[in-house]
Amino acid sequence: MDVSLIIPAYNEEQYIGATLESVKRASRHAFGGKAAIETIVVDNASTDGTAAVAISYATKLVRESHRNVARARNAGASAATGDVLVFLDADTLVPERFFSRITEVMRDSQCLGGSPDIKHVSKRRWVRGYLALWRCVGRIAGMAQGAAQFCRRDAFASVGGYDERLFMGEDVDFYWRLRKFAKRRGSYLRFISDLQLRPSPRRFDQWPAWRILVWTNPLFMWLFRRRRSAWRGWYDDAVR
Questions:
Q1: Which uninterrupted H or E stretch holds 115?
Q2: Inter-CA distances, 172 with 76, 104, 179, 230, Å
Q3: CATH number at residue 181
Q4: pLDDT tens digits, residue range 33-63?
Q5: Is residue 240 part of a domain?
Q6: What whole-number distance in Å separates Cα of residue 159 and Cα of residue 204?
Q7: Which residues are bridge partners to 63 per DSSP?
Q8: What's the pTM value of the predicted model, to 2 decimals?
Q9: In Å, how far are 33, 89, 148 from 73, measured between CA atoms?
């Protein structure tokens, strides 16, 4: 199967290089030494060298001027040619078996997509414990974070992609809609528990406690998910 990887990126010059290196290793591992993954970086109006780093790795670069991560994901999907779409955050390293496991589970035609395990590793012990709690809650509730999600192209089109009206929680919203669609078709989504991806902990290492507790609160996210002004740190003053 043909796989397209889509990476939305805003001012990720310091992190995206390491992410793309890990993608290259995982691609070679999955396809007999050949870097066979179509890798698309969506430069979401960056003001740093994100685009230059992406181009240096011979990826396909898509430019999206409207600052919205859902819109960036959709723009990447529109440019993709693969049968399977994989969405990855620009600051997230993937293990060597990442693409191998995705292609394995997607060989079952009844599997429409899924997500690997995501583990945030902060320098602060209380933050690690707090995020581990939410990780368990998310697994019980059937949520999957946008740090890494994958699905079939036709399923993505059928549910309408990511909701561009949302500035936060668009990943959970998409996964829930994808799960409902799979159930209606008698299909399923696969959570890959034997893979752990680790996003950069930079926000959780630098933010004060009140900000972490507020911005990760599901009620706050639901109430303000359509207000860009509520999410400075993702859309304006991105933490380095």
A1: strand 111-118
A2: 18, 24, 10, 18
A3: 3.90.550.10
A4: 655 789 999 999 999 999 999 999 878 999 9
A5: no
A6: 32
A7: 43
A8: 0.90
A9: 28, 10, 12
